[in-house]
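Module 6 notes. Inverse folding takes a fixed backbone as the condition and produces residue identities as the prediction. Think of it as a translation problem where the source language is geometry and the target language is the twenty amino acids. Below is one complete input and output pair. Work through it position by position during the lab.
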């Protein structure tokens, strides 16, 4: 296993950016590598999973790449007043990864996981492009961003910077609840959604609301909550080990 920290110029972002990649020891060109995109939270960056969890130790001997990009406070969005991080994440970065490593766009071997803002990001990505992912894992996800704005109007400036006009939120590519209906209403592929949250998390009620939405839909999903746990790294460290175990079992069964 190796850790590669790569700094490169992004044509989409028009700036240098960093991505951390955990690489298996053996790369076999005749067997496309499985990939896990691991997304960070609002106050984090591409190094935070490495700094605050034991993901590097848990990843040892795993037969897949783990990709940790940097998107700042963008909510994985082509910002209304800022950079185009959605295009970077979904278009440019996968193309770069495919150029650097023996990776093919195989849905059964492509996964995404993230915490908080990253939990929102993986759901947004998986529901907008369900044909790309086998399973997605949202940990303590910010699943109801519009609801957060209603509770905390002081966030209006941040919301407008990232998403633009709040009146245009509903049914947009950023609205997870609308996306559930859209994907459920198609005959196409549907990734398995795994949702996790602690009962003491300040976004617990939002996660229950999203769980209820999934329960009403035809989307395959699981939900797991942990009593008396908040928005904290000791929980996410436990979860990422479970996620890696699950993915390894999935791709080797």
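Target side of the pair, the amino acids:
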């Amino acid at each position: 296993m190796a850790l590669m920290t790569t700094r490169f110029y992004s044509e989409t972002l028009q700036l240098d950016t960093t991505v951390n990649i955990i690489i298996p020891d053996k790369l076999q060109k005749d067997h496309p590598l499985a990939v896990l995109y691991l997304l960070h939270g609002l106050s984090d960056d591409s190094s935070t999973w490495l700094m605050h969890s034991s993901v590097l130790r848990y990843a040892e001997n795993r037969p897949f790449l783990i990709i940790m990009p940097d998107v700042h406070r963008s909510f994985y969005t082509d910002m209304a007043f800022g950079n185009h991080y959605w295009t970077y994440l979904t278009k440019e970065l996968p193309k770069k990864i495919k150029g650097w490593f023996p990776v093919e766009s195989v849905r059964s071997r492509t996964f995404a996981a993230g915490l908080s803002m990253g939990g929102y990001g993986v759901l947004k990505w998986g529901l907008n492009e369900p044909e790309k992912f086998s399973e997605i894992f949202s940990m303590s996800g910010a699943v109801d961003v519009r609801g957060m704005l209603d509770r905390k109007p002081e966030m209006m400036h941040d919301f407008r910077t990232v998403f633009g006009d709040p009146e245009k939120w509903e049914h947009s590519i950023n609205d997870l609840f609308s996306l559930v209906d859209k994907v459920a209403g198609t005959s196409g592929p549907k990734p398995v959604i795994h949702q996790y949250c602690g009962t003491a998390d300040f976004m617990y009620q939002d996660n229950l609301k999203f769980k209820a939405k999934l329960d009403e839909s035809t989307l395959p999903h699981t939900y797991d909550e942990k009593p008396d746990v908040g928005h904290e790294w000791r929980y996410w460290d436990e979860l990422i080990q479970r996620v890696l175990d699950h993915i390894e079992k999935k791709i080797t069964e």
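Reference fact for the lab report: The chain has nine helices and eight strands.
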